[in-house]
Structure formats: C-alpha cells, structure tokens
Amino acid sequence: xxxxxxxxxxxxxxxxxxxxxxxxxxxxxxxxxxxxxxxxxxxxxxxxxxxxxxxxxxxxxxxxxxxxxxxxxxxxxxxxxxxxxxxxxxxxxx
Length: 94
Ligand SMILES: [Zn+2]
Known about the structure:
Distance between the termini: 45 Å
Number of helices: 1
Strand content: 35-45%
Helix content: 25-40%
Bound molecules: zinc ion
C-alpha cells in the first residue's frame, strides 16, 4: 500500500483547525463563574457595545479579501450555584 503523504498532511491540518475552532467555541460559549468556578450559568442579557468593519484576507470573494462586520457584545451571566452575576465580552464576525 502506498501512502499519499500530501493527503495525510492535509487531513491532519484540517483536523487541527477543526479542533481549534471547536475548542475556542466551547471556551467562548461556556464561561466559568469567577466566584465558584461553576459552569452551570445562564445568560441573562446581551448588550451590543459597537460594530466595526474589518477586512479579512482570502475569505468570501474569489478575488481575495472581503469586508465583514464585527460586532462587540457584552453578555451578562448569572451563576445558578452561588447567584454571582458577571459579564463577559466577546466579538462576533458576521
Ligand atoms: Zn458561582
């Protein structure tokens, strides 16, 4: 059997990228309570702080970069365990 190394490398890099996205999503979506470290929290409100246009390289159009809208949010969470209220900021690219 002949190994196709370029395919193996490609597959490995895709797996790493997917894993990275999944991990970053989990971290972003599941913040911990700063008081007791519990992940048993609920989102109580979401506030848009601002938006800006950003240029991304390579994505979107076949010609190269594209202009995208990035939104900054501030989310308020409440811990179900100790009732601590805390905020987290994050950015979302549209
Ligand atoms: Zn807590």
